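Homework help board

Subject: predicted structure for assignment chain

Our instructor gave us this sequence and asked us to write out the predicted structure in token form, then describe one feature. I got the tokens but I'm not sure how to describe them. Can anyone check?
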Amino acid sequence: MTNTEKTSLPRVIKIQVALAVLATVVTIALAAYIPKLMERRQSLESDIAKLKQERSDLQQHTTDLTSQRDAARSAYNSLANATSESLPPEQAQSAIERSLSAAPEAAKILPRIYIHIRSATQRTRAKGIADALRQQGFIVPGVQILVNEGPDETQVRYFHAEDQEEKEAAKIAQTLAGAGLPKAEVKLVSGYPNIRPRQYEIWLAPAS
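My token output:
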């Protein structure tokens, strides 16, 4: 063995030892980090699964809304005759009920208002109110229902407690106030389960 080999041999051994130590350190570090990586991977997979489910739910919701929109559009077109001036009130209401029975989802979407008057002299004012309500998206038959009895003050009646959440009855009352009528009473009339949701009635006071 030459002097050069005697001198370089310890250096080689030192390098090998250093590499072995480095490999051990890397192995220990990886052993500590790999579980965290696996945990992170599982968390990401869970998030991805949730996002996929949310996307599926949104797609289904969009499909449902599209179906409801089409049903409402079809029902609205079918109601055109029922809201015309040419039908008596009873026939108008019957036509509306038939249209809503053919498209049950539309009953949840299309709010309907029937106007009750106490005298024929109120028809002109009732027609103006009906036009204003139609502009807001309400279905209002063109012929008002003439009644012999009613409240002394104008009322907006609704028949299901859950309809109050939509605050449509209050919106109707505001429209009446905008038409120059005194403030209307908004009243829940219970005991009529057969009346469809989102159906409202306006009862004009005799002096309106």
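Reply (TA_rk): Your tokens look well-formed. For the description, you could write something like this. The domain at 110-203 is CATH 3.30.70 (Alpha-Beta Plaits). That's the kind of observation they're looking for.
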